[in-house]
Amino acid sequence: MKCLDALYICTTPFQIMSAISLAVNRKEKADLYIDVQFEGAEELAEKLRERKIFDCVHLLKDVQAIKDIRFTKGRMARYRKMMYWFRHVEKAAEEILLPDREYKTLYATHYIIPATMLILYFSKYDIRTRMHFFDDGESSYFNQNFYKSSMAERTARRWVLKGKKLRKVRRLYLYSPDIFRRMNPTETIPVFQLPRFNDSDAVKEHLKAVFDVTEDKGIREPVVILDNIKESVLPENECKRLVNLYKRMHKEFGDENIIIKRHPRDPHEDQTGIREYPYKIMPFEIICLASDSNRMNLVTLSSTATFMPKLLLDQEPRIVLLHRVFHRPDWNDEDTNRLFDIIRESYRKPERICIPETEEELEGILRNIREELTSNGGKEV
Hints:
Layout: E1 2-10, H1 13-25, E2 30-35, H2 41-51, E3 56-60, H3 64-71, H4 75-87, H5 89-96, E4 101-108, H6 113-124, E5 130-134, H7 139-142, H8 151-161, E6 169-174, H9 177-183, E7 191-193, H10 201-210, E8 223-226, H11 236-253, E9 258-261, H12 284-287, E10 297-300, H13 308-313, E11 318-321, H14 334-346, E12 353-354, H15 359-375
Parallel strand pairs: 1-2, 1-4, 2-3, 4-5, 5-6, 6-7, 8-9, 8-10, 10-11, 11-12
């Protein structure tokens, strides 16, 4: 049996970036498991193997428990699948875990399916593996449910464990513990600093190699639209309004001053006339390693990536958030607003975070950006 310091379970490129930062800075002998949910996972895994950051990089592609729970439609049908795999958690763990290995610590961003199965398995068989959570962007800071399983899951686990205690999450690693504590003043979980990218040359070197970051992949345009999967949050008429705004911005700023970064999972390609950043699956956080985000004006409906330059690299792009101008039905913006208020306070120039309430206010902000570009020969100060 091989004993390692840690096992990281990730589902997104950003989570993998955070896992690299933690593992390298903590000098851990660790394995990385990738629950494949994004395009290019196999190629990324091969580059990770070449860098030898992790002892083993393991793709969770054909795990029946994960597929059954994730893709079963209907709440009750999904619950029955979950109950089946809770009762057969040994079989699920056997499919997930590499053989003949044990781990001192399991890291995940929240209760994703493979982590849930392994926590239950470790608890049932008294395997002494600790459980920690780590940063996954905006939701890590204000969504309390992110770290809590459902009542149905908790009931099912108690039934399976038959009196044994479920292994508890012991720590939370975040890029900004201060923001988390201010957002969640009553939360008692110990929160630790997750090393930022600019804290370690070794981490930056690994990230650039793994994600193939070269100078030509940086963004030089001063106005950057970080597009969302609009249809998931906006009604059709509001989607059209947003696309029309993009078209107007293209006309007003000029082709050389604006670019759009599409969401990696967005199947639509609206014809806005704006040049698209060509490396669609590259996370914006990685693009910033090849760019000067201090010079950027980031325009977005509501993207978690906008405040990452500040958290990861201590850079301060101007941020223009559109979520108050466009109607999002049943969307509670209270936490989002509070989060950006706190981030604004952390900026050296707080006025660079703009959250317009009306079309008129938005037009004023865009006019100021145009004037700055004109006075600086087309380049942001």
